[in-house]
Design goal:
The complex is a heterotrimer of chains A (251), B (300) and C (236). Chain B is mainly alpha-helical and 300 residues long. Chain B contains 10 helices and 2 strands. Chain C has 2 domains: 148 residues, no CATH class; 70 residues.
Chain lengths: 251, 300, 236
């Protein structure tokens, strides 16, 4: 998949710094660009700043530095617009689906965009159809499987018609069939995507490039397998002889 | 103690429904002033937390375990008005979804547990929580359970529900034991929470002091008097109920053990009980009206 | 768990399920008031009400046995007081206590079993319940299942590590305290996560209560018809 290089990047981040309340430096001097049509995988250790970084993009967390989304600089005034342009799917679906029924939840975004109720419901229904879940519209979220919840969360975001999709660890808790369904769905969506993931296989099949985070710094950018190889970012196949448990071994 | 339907006589549950509605309304309006819509999920989750917490066993004696009720804890975590709000929701959901407590009796249960119980629980913390924190927390949790229980007991007695002296005594002892357990559990849980989230607990005296102090004092007074009257003269309460026309049936001749009243106690207590309760209700009505007037003035 | 079962029942599609929540709530109140004012010895009246409830359960296509069983949760309380009343020389009151408290519980169970909670809350709001109460209830119910499951898991985990009871009351008390504190911390984090998710989808200031249900003629007829029947039976 070759990235479509266009004149204006969808996201432009320059020199982003962010510190938590207790003083730990979560992000340091991060520079990043997202071109239209790109799918970028964000790799890195737990706590390296990947999630913190994506939460900066729609202003949920506020750091120092410049962030521009679809040509709009991120300020308090532009937040509502930017939040319409970036659709974020969180890691914990139970936190994302907080309304009593699926339809209520998917309609939440459009309603916040100021769309009148009937139209919002119509958008919600078509987003659910796109995600293949029209039949669960009136169910409560806790009746759904992890995979269904993830797709409903995605539908909730698609109903807002964003230009960019951000997914934080989308395949956690998904069993193989659910993961396949999600992948299929993501492949069909035309938006540019940022995917935070540990799943290198997912990254390789969807992403045109990967970036690597280390201790709050974005240290590398390039094709997925190159990054994975360079940072040894794969789950190893166990060589039977070497890794037999031995009482004499010291870890 | 959740009172089911058909235990309280109609005048009693109707009056309590009539009292609970403005009381809760006032607290909801107060909470609405302190918080905006973004805090609603937090309140809901905290309510769910209390529900879930009520399932955890706390071993307190040989083979016995207690459970957290949570009214005082909520007040310390969220402040009194939001705590009343959340507790009201909890009691209502317990009535409708779990059939724990009646629907016509909802006013009584809400008043006992969500209003009086919570406010009585907050009062010691408000009064002396800044200087003697742990004792204030214990006292608050203790009072909240004792007050709600005593009020419930009083309401049952006034409705003419037959209870022998022995049974009443046993119930009160039971309430006191639960109250003590609540006190201990609340302190430990609150301290443990503070370790994980320092600074999360409310500062004593931070909220709209005057109105709530008035309400809380009244709640405690009502509960305390209810407790005393119930323990000392259950028949007096019943007689009062008959006098007020509120009891539907006379079940005074209980042949069960320990049932002796001297005529001296009888007459003196009836008079005092009548005067006491009537006076308290009058004070409560005046306080409620004053509080409402104050609140309206402030919001203009 | 009780609320899980009730939730499943409320997802049905019987004529009773389809009635507007407001109609059902008001009908329930009428029923409860009429029942409360029924004297203890009006056996025929009580029997008629019991039959009405049974019929309603069948119309709602709920499992009759299961409903009647679950309503028994009130019996320990009522039977205790009934025994005392009986011994105090008032057998009618004793009987009435048991019958009436049981029938009211069945009636409430009927409401809860034919009305999904979000719709019930909507009905209550439409009948005048403050918006804040309804919204908090909505969120509480949404996370009730999640958190009670979490609490159960933690209880199980603690029990697995408890070994024998001889470790002492103190340490298991401490374990329970720790469980609660951790449950609280997770609940709080969850609330923060919800907040972030709300912000990410552009939440500005107010929640909008969705889907204004319509109170149709069917609902009106139901409410008036049943109420009239109840009052007539009571008076007649």
């Amino acid at each position: 998949m070759t990235p479509v290089v266009d004149s204006s990047p969808l996201i432009e981040v320059r020199d982003l710094h962010f510190q938590y309340e207790d003083g730990t430096q979560a992000l340091e001097g991060v520079n990043f660009t997202l071109q239209p049509g790109e799918t970028v995988a964000l790799l890195g250790a737990n706590g390296s700043g990947k999630t913190t970084f994506v939460l900066q993009l729609n202003g949920v967390l506020r750091g120092q530095g410049s962030i521009t989304v679809c040509g709009l600089p991120l300020t308090k005034q532009t937040l509502p617009q930017i939040r319409s342009k970036i659709g974020m799917v969180f890691q914990d679906s139970d936190e994302q689906l907080f309304m009593p029924t699926v339809l209520d939840d998917v309609a939440f975004g459009p309603l916040n965009q100021g769309i009148p109720e009937e139209e919002a419901l119509a958008k919600a229904k078509s987003a659910l159809e796109r995600a293949g879940l029209a039949q669960v519209a009136n169910k409560a979220p806790y009746h759904l499987s992890a995979g269904e919840k993830k797709r409903v969360a995605l539908a909730g975001v698609l109903a807002m018609e964003p230009e960019i999709l951000v997914l934080d660890e989308p395949t956690t808790f998904l069993d193989p069939p659910a993961e396949r369904n999600l992948l299929q769905l993501l492949r069909e969506l035309p938006q540019a995507k940022l995917i935070v993931t540990h799943n290198v296989r997912l990254a390789a099949s969807l992403a045109s490039r990967a970036v690597f985070f280390e201790k709050g710094k974005l240290v590398a950018s390039g094709p997925v397998d190159e990054i994975a190889r360079r940072f040894e970012w794969t789950y190893s196949d166990l060589p039977p002889a070497d890794l037999r448990y031995s009482a004499h071994r010291r870890f | 103690m959740h009172i089911p339907d058909n235990f309280l006589s109609p005048p009693v549950w109707a009056t309590l429904d009539a009292i609970a509605i403005p009381a809760v309304g006032l607290m909801v309006r107060q909470a609405g002033r302190e918080l905006d819509d973004t805090r609603i999920p937090l309140l809901g989750v905290m309510g769910a937390f209390v529900f879930a917490a009520q399932m955890i066993n706390f071993p307190v004696g040989v083979g016995t375990s207690a459970h957290l009720v949570g009214g005082a804890l909520l007040a310390y975590l969220l402040g009194p008005a939001p705590a009343v709000l959340v507790m009201t929701v909890i009691v209502a959901i317990q009535a409708f979804v779990f059939q724990d407590g009646g629907v016509l009796a909802l006013g009584a249960n809400v008043f006992n547990m969500a209003v009086a119980g919570v406010l009585a629980g907050y009062w010691p913390f408000h009064m002396w929580g800044a200087s003697w924190r742990r004792s204030a927390i214990f006292a608050g949790a203790f009072l909240s359970v004792l007050v709600s229980g005593s009020l419930a007991l009083g309401e049952l007695l006034i409705s003419g529900v037959a209870m022998s002296r022995l049974m009443i005594g046993a119930t009160l002892v039971f309430f006191a034991a639960n109250a003590a357990a609540e006190g201990v559990i609340t302190i430990f849980v609150l301290l443990a929470i503070e370790k994980l989230h320092p600074g999360f607990v409310q500062k004593p005296g931070a909220s709209n002091g005057r109105i709530l102090a008035v309400f809380s004092s009244v709640a405690i007074a009502l509960g305390a008097v209810g407790f005393l009257l119930a323990s000392a003269a259950p028949d007096a309460i019943e007689r009062l109920g008959i006098q007020l026309g509120v009891t539907t049936k006379t079940v005074l001749h209980a042949p069960l053990a320990d049932y002796t009243i001297g005529s001296f106690v009888e007459s003196a207590w009836v008079r005092r009980a009548t005067a006491g309760l009537a006076g308290l209700l009058l004070i409560y009505a005046v306080c409620a009206a004053t509080a409402r007037w104050l609140v309206r003035r402030r919001s203009v | 768990m009780h609320h899980v079962l009730l939730d499943r029942w409320s997802q049905g599609a019987s004529p009773l399920h389809r009635r507007d929540a407001r109609a059902k709530i008001l009908t329930l109140v009428v029923f409860l008031v009429v029942l409360a004012t029924t004297p203890a010895d009006a056996v025929a009246v009580l029997a008629t009400y019991a039959l009405l409830l049974a019929a309603a359960i069948l119309i709602a296509r709920l499992p009759l046995g299961s409903v009647l069983l679950r309503a028994m949760v009130v019996l320990p309380f009522s039977i205790t007081f009934a025994i005392i009343s009986w011994l105090a020389g008032d057998p009618w009151r004793a009987l009435a206590l048991v019958e009436k408290s049981y029938l009211s519980t069945v009636a409430v169970l009927l409401l809860a079993g034919t009305t999904p909670l979000p719709l019930l809350l909507g009905g209550l709001e439409r009948l005048g319940t403050p918006r804040l109460l309804v919204l908090v209830a909505q969120f509480l119910y949404r996370y009730l299942f999640v958190l009670s499951e979490q609490a159960q898991h933690m209880r199980l985990a603690t029990a697995c590590r408890a070994g024998g009871s001889s470790r002492g009351r103190r340490s298991s008390f401490r374990a329970a305290t720790g469980t609660l504190a951790v449950l609280f911390a997770r609940s709080y984090e969850r609330a923060e996560g919800i907040h972030r998710a709300m912000q990410a989808r552009g939440f500005s200031e107010r929640f909008s209560l969705l889907r204004t249900a319509r109170f149709g003629t069917g609902d009106g007829l139901f409410l008036l018809g049943v109420s009239a029947f109840l009052v007539l039976v009571r008076l007649g």
